[in-house]
């Protein structure tokens, strides 16, 4: 966590990431509630693991969502930060207040390197395999959640104090297109084994 100074006002922002998990390919899913505050970037993303020298690896970042309450938008971006910075981004806006309820945000990273972003089950962006292949990334990525005060997310207002992004769950499935015993509904316990958890090698749930 770090203190952020904006004029005479300080805010504390933070992030959480997986220290013991990094993956490449699969289905990444989280149910999140965006903070009801202008000026706060609410992010669910993937990144080259912390601790690696960014100049010695092909450092990659995949933003599953950077969600902003002020214009009800979600930004979906791929950044290849090193050795030469390049990237490709897209955004979508909604006609409703995205901070009013939880939303399921997903990324399917297919084994051919096609990327598919979805919001509440609706596909919002598809990136061709050739784009990611041209970035030459070979390193598995860790999973992160973060909030950050920035002008790109709107002008900070009174609601920013004490605001937070809420995460109901995050799930990572090793194989895109996973289906359970009955269907692909993670919430249905009948899809799992007798012990109520995924089988060996099927998924990492945390």
Helix tally equals: 1
What global shape is seen? globular
Which structural category do the helix and sheet elements fall into? mainly beta
Q: Outline the biggest β-sheet.
A: 7 strands, antiparallel
Alpha-carbon distance between the two ends: 21 Å
Output the helix-strand order.
Answer: EEEEEEEEEEHEEE
Q: Low-confidence parts lasting 5 or more residues at pLDDT below 50?
A: 201-206
Mean pLDDT: 80
Q: Which range best describes the helical content: under 10%, 10-25%, 25-40%, 40-55%, 55-70% or over 70%?
A: under 10%
* Topology, number of strands: 13
Give the percentage of residues in beta strands. Answer: 35-45%
Strand adjacency order, main sheet: 1-2-11-4-5-6-7
Using the CA coordinates, give the radius of gyration: 18 Å
Summarize the structure in words.
This protein has one helix spanning 129-133, and strands at residues 2-6, 9-17, 26-33, 40-47, 60-68, 73-80, 86-93, 103-109, 115-119, 122-127, 142-149, 166-173, 203-205. With 206 residues, the protein is an all-beta fold. The model is unreliable at 201-206 (pLDDT under 50). The protein starts with a strand and ends with a strand. 2% of the residues lie in helices and 45% in strands. The strands form 2 sheets. The chain has a 7-stranded antiparallel β-sheet, with no helix packed on it. A 6-stranded antiparallel β-sheet has the order 10-9-8-3-12-13. It is built from 1 helix and 13 strands. A hairpin with a 5-residue loop joins strand 8 and strand 9 (115-119).
């Amino acid at each position: 966590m770090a203190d952020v100074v904006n004029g005479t006002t300080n805010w504390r922002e933070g992030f959480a990431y997986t220290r013991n998990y990094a993956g490449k390919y699969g289905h990444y899913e989280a149910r999140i509630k965006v903070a009801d505050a202008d000026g706060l970037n609410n992010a669910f993303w993937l990144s080259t693991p912390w601790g690696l020298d960014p100049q010695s690896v092909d450092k990659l970042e995949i933003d599953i969502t950077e969600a902003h309450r002020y214009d009800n938008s979600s930004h979906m971006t791929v950044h290849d930060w090193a050795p030469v910075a390049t990237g490709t981004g897209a955004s979508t806006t909604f006609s409703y207040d995205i901070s009013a309820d939880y939303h399921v945000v997903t990324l399917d990273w297919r084994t051919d390197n096609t990327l598919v972003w979805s919001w509440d089950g609706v596909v919002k962006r598809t990136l061709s395999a050739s784009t990611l292949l041209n970035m030459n990334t070979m390193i598995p990525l860790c999973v992160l959640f973060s909030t950050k005060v920035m002008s790109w997310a709107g002008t900070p207002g009174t609601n920013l104090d004490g605001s937070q992004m809420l995460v109901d769950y995050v799930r990572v499935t090793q194989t895109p297109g996973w289906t359970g015993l009955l269907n692909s509904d993670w919430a249905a316990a009948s899809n799992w084994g007798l012990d109520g958890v995924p089988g060996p090698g099927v998924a990492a749930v945390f």
